[in-house]
Amino acid sequence: MTPLGLYLSRRSINRAEVSRRTGINKTRLSELCNNTATHLRADELYLIALAISADPCEVLREVCGHLGLAKSDE
């Protein structure tokens, strides 16, 4: 499961309702939640945040908080 999938599960979010509200089809939303090779676009993240009444920055932190900058050899 992806960080987005985990986030939505923790909040007990109905994915079918998110799909309906955002216009993101159920197949794409399922890929975003289950397939770690699928990349979430910024517009999708923003629409999902609006659909679940969450702060887009909070969703971004939850979904991408594991990322970090590469260490420099300098």
UniProtKB/TrEMBL annotation:
Residues in HTH cro/C1-type domain copies: 8-60
InterPro entries cross-referenced by the UniProt entry: Cro/C1-type_HTH, Lambda_DNA-bd_dom_sf
Single Gene Ontology MF annotation: DNA binding
UniProt protein name: Putative transcriptional regulator
